[in-house]
Amino acid sequence: MAIHLTKESKILVQGMTGGEGMKHTRRMLAAGTNVVGGVNPRKAGRSVDFDDRTVPVFGSVAEGVDATGADVTVVFVPPAFTKAAVTEAADAGIGLAVVITEGVPVHDSVAFLAHARRRGTRVIGPNCPGLISPGQSGAGIIPADITRPGRIGLVSKSGTLTYQLMYELRDIGFSTCVGIGGDPVVGTTHIDCLAAFQDDPDTDLIVLIGEIGGDAEERAAAYIRDHVTKPVVGYIAGFTAPEGRTMGHAGAIVSGSSGTARAKQQALEAAGVRVGRTPTETARQVLAVLGGGA
Length: 294
Known about the structure:
Blueprint: E1 11-14, H1 19-30, E2 35-39, E3 47-50, E4 53-58, H2 61-68, E5 72-75, H3 79-91, E6 96-99, H4 106-119, E7 122-124, E8 130-133, E9 137-140, E10 149-156, H5 159-168, E11 174-179, H6 190-199, E12 205-211, H7 216-227, E13 232-237, H8 261-270, E14 274-276, H9 279-290
Parallel strand pairs: 1-2, 1-5, 2-4, 5-6, 6-7, 10-11, 10-12, 12-13, 13-14
Antiparallel strand pairs: 3-4, 8-9, 8-11
Helix pairs in contact: 3-4, 5-9, 6-7, 7-8
């Protein structure tokens, strides 16, 4: 089992015929993902050959859904067109929209996330690497060859750290890895994934990766304390970051003591979460928990 994405998922790619869309569609297909179509109004009716697979291009998401039964879309369109793309997907009845695009204006994100919520569409992102259920399916840009199926669930703001923890814990493997994105406004939160992993019978331990800025990790800590019975191991990026400066992701800004890595670590540890100070130390914490170590 996995959360949000399984081998049964049927995936459309909005922006499939662009450079990034082509590259990552090929990678998704090579990983066994069931990509059933692309969407580009200017190339409707054509098809694209990816090695041993030919993928049709539809003029709209609605056409793709009608023709294939697609229930997931991956969005690779430029920032200026992302709001329209996600709105179109939600209106077509897509259940999960994975928005890879970086640089989406915050007011656009607020608008399309509200619309998607009203339509019952879950959005992951924007500005995220997507998600992968190893051995089943991947939607986005997460490499499929750095880990294997297993019983760890991972939720992360950072794409790079998602990959590193997947690799560090490759001998154990993962049920699902979700990169939620680091923008100030995102569609799926740490808490959403914690709840899903808590309910997933094939996830035994949860890894939570956060970063400086905002209060998402503190809110996640409160949720863990009250609702999560499975072990959680955490890592917060930014222990050495200077205060008062935006660092990397648009949401990673620290004011005074609020939003610091230390404050987030304290909140998580107070909720019973083991927190590593480096990714490698975090991986060792996971091994200690799974091995019954202190």
